[in-house]
Amino acid sequence: AQTVTQSQPEMSVQEAETVTLSCTYDTSENNYYLFWYKQPPSRQMILVIRQEAYKQQNATENRFSVNFQKAAKSFSLKISDSQLGDTAMYFCAFGGLAGAGSYQLTFGKGTKLSVIP
Amino acid sequence: DTAVSQTPKYLVTQMGNDKSIKCEQNLGHDTMYWYKQDSKKFLKIMFSYNNKELIINETVPNRFSPKSPDKAHLNLHINSLELGDSAVYFCASSQALLPLTGPGDDEQFFGPGTRLTVL
Fold first, then answer.
1. B44 contacts on A by Cβ (under 8 Å)
2. Cα of B12 to nearest chain A Cα, Å
3. Other CB atoms closer than 10 Å to residue A91's CB: what's the count?
4. Which of residues 28-47 of B touch A (CB under 8 A)?
5. Does position B101 have pLDDT exceeding 70, yes or no?
6. How far apart are CA B17 and CA B83, in angstroms?
7. Per-residue pLDDT band at B34 (split at 50, 70, 90)
8. Cis peptide before B69 (omega within 30 of 0)
């Protein structure tokens, strides 16, 4: 079974600064997918960024980028130029093989990020 | 247009009652999921259906019964509600069947959640 660990329950960052959220995972699979989801106070789950494990290049989406270290099983999220709207819970998720050829997501426990004006 | 919708958004009920939460997706996806998010915000998968067939059934009390009348709908029925069932329940959908056939097939789209409170 896969496990996902987010070791920072809460973090804060000044507006316009950069913050990095950490995530590690454990798996015996070679092909899998990694995700960061954002859950603002509205409760909606929003995909922030994804990474395919077979790709060596780190994914980037505007101000969001990841540092994917496959050998270390590490998948951190960097948020540059933090904005007030980035305040949310951030969940790291592992997408791996489940039954009948589909896959399932395993989530970490989340990091609550507060952006301070 | 709402991609994944759930009704109701809030549900307050007494212990022992039976209730249902409905989920619909208009994305043409083949796979749908139910997740439970507890008071500590931990998200855990409960069920996964592919094209109306149950794929994943995590360790969930049999008071919880998913029903998929067609591949666009996955409803969650809960019998004999208990205090510990209070949580936010999320429905999600994806195209995810391995091998994935295109970029983005792995993405799960979440509904807005249903906050269930059992008194």
1. 107
2. 18
3. 26
4. 31, 33, 40-45
5. no
6. 11
7. very high
8. no
